[in-house]
Write a structure and sequence with these properties.
The chain is mainly α. About 85% of the residues lie in helices and about 0% in strands. The longest helix has about 35 residues. The structure holds aspartic acid. Aspartic acid (ASP) binds next to helix 18 and helix 20.
Length: about 425
């Protein structure tokens, strides 16, 4: 049986077990499912363990083999422009849907009060975390590490990317004999990381079952009732972004068949869904890009780690719908100008969100503050409303986030190797 099939079965079994425990209120089963969750957490740690060496090694090899440093600048600027554009489209889809469906208009006062009293304390702690998060200027400044070893030790992705590219560029300037030594070493390290990923992925079905079972068993299905329209709006938005934006980009820009592409990356999407973390999925994203999608390493080694850190279309779309929903419930309709503000802040905020679970809702505070400013309403009241369904939406938006990263890698590769690829390998 293929690994992908095993993971799918594990996912379905996990959902079923969780639902049985939840709906039938079987306490021992819930406790059992929650008690095996550490198996899933251990697996996430294993795969996260590979992230830093993999990104570092593959980025050095990728940059050093570019041969031409201006090419790096070109790939870099194209990637950033592409990431910002698709994120802005995602936010716009979220806003359009929120104007049409108006998820906040049918909320009952009792439902609102119940959500508030249940989640207010937890929500206040998210707002505090958001206040501690660095602003955009700091994020940019922090990209340059004072000490690259500290960045590697701390797993700080942007400074690691910055240093690896800088080092890779320097390696490419060395005489051939020297260069081959260093590239050979890091290439070997990169391959060893891939072997580790193969091993770790063999355990993925067990981890997926453990993670999903616990999430569903713990999930309060009653919360879903009052937030159903909101949840559906986010899900429809994510589905549209996938079906329209990415498919068009794949077809027209990457010249790949969208359905074949999605079939090839479904393992990555499932792992993103199960872990709610683009960072934890990154090793598999990189392996799939190289081995399954045969994307050139010099593109994927740069585009994918950067994407896992700064490109979050699913998160941005979710932030747009969440902001509109909260505004519709708490302050009524908001003007078009304010909605344009949401496009800007949600696009930038999603850059600042780390690729870890729940990062999106913490950074949502920034977007909410802009919209609620002057209304006297505390963003924590808004966050409290939607916190109960956040994990489920986090799983879905993370799957879209990684799809966006892989689509970008395919698009950028095509634009770089237009001639070489024309009529070339079947994709
Ligand atoms: N969990 C998401 C990710 O890792 C970020 C978010 O919370 O939206 O991509």
């Amino acid at each position: 049986m293929q690994l992908y099939t095993k993971i799918t079965i594990a996912l379905i079994l996990g959902v079923l077990a969780g639902l049985v425990a939840n709906i039938l209120d079987i306490d021992p089963l819930t406790r059992l499912l929650v008690s095996i969750e550490p198996i899933g957490t251990a697996w996430i740690r294993l795969i996260t363990m590979v992230v830093v060496p993999l990104v570092f090694a593959s980025l050095i090899v990728g940059t050093a083999s570019l041969g031409d440093i201006t090419k790096l600048g070109r790939i870099g600027s194209k990637t950033i422009v592409y990431y910002m554009a698709t994120t802005a489209i995602a936010v716009t889809i979220g806003l359009l849907l929120s104007n049409v469906i108006r998820p906040g208009s049918g909320m009952s006062p009792e439902g609102l009060e119940a959500l508030r009293s249940n989640y207010m304390a937890e929500s206040a702690s998210r707002v505090e975390m958001a206040q501690e998060a660095p602003g955009l200027a700091d994020v940019l400044l922090n990209m340059i590490p004072r000490n690259p070893v500290a960045a590697l030790a701390g797993g700080d992705m942007l400074p690691i990317i910055f240093f690896a590219i800088f080092l890779g560029a320097a390696v490419s300037a060395l005489p051939k004999e020297r260069r081959d030594h260093i590239v050979g070493f890091f290439d070997g390290l990169n391959e060893a990381c891939m072997v580790m990923i193969h091993w770790i992925m063999k355990l993925a079905p067990y981890a997926v079952f453990a993670l999903i079972g616990a999430v569903i068993a713990r999930f309060g299905l009653d919360v879903l009732g009052s937030l159903l329209v909101y949840v559906v709006t986010v899900l429809v938005g994510l589905a549209l972004h996938l079906a329209i934006t990415y498919s068009v980009a794949l077809k027209l820009l990457a010249r790949r068949a969208p359905l074949t592409f999605y079939r090839k990356i479904r393992g990555v999407q499932l792992i993103a869904f199960s872990t709610s973390s683009s960072n934890a999925t990154l090793p598999l994203t990189m392996e799939t890009a190289e081995d399954v999608l045969t994307i050139e390493k010099e593109v994927s080694s740069f585009v994918l780690p950067l994407g896992a850190t700064i490109n979050m279309d699913g998160t941005a779309l979710y932030q747009a719908v969440a902001t509109m929903f909260i505004a519709q419930v708490l302050i009524g309709d908001i003007s078009l100008v304010a909605q344009f503000g949401i496009v800007l802040t949600a696009t930038l905020a999603s850059i600042g969100a780390a690729g870890v679970p729940s990062a999106g809702i913490i950074i949502l505070v920034v977007v909410l503050e802009g919209v609620l400013a002057g209304s006297g309403i505390d963003p924590a009241a808004g966050i409290a409303m939607i916190l109960g369904v956040d994990r489920i939406l986090d799983m879905c938006r993370t799957a879209v986030n990684v799809t966006g990263d892989l689509t970008a890698a395919a698009v950028i590769e095509r634009s770089e190797y237009e001639h070489a690829l024309r009529g070339g390998r079947a994709r």
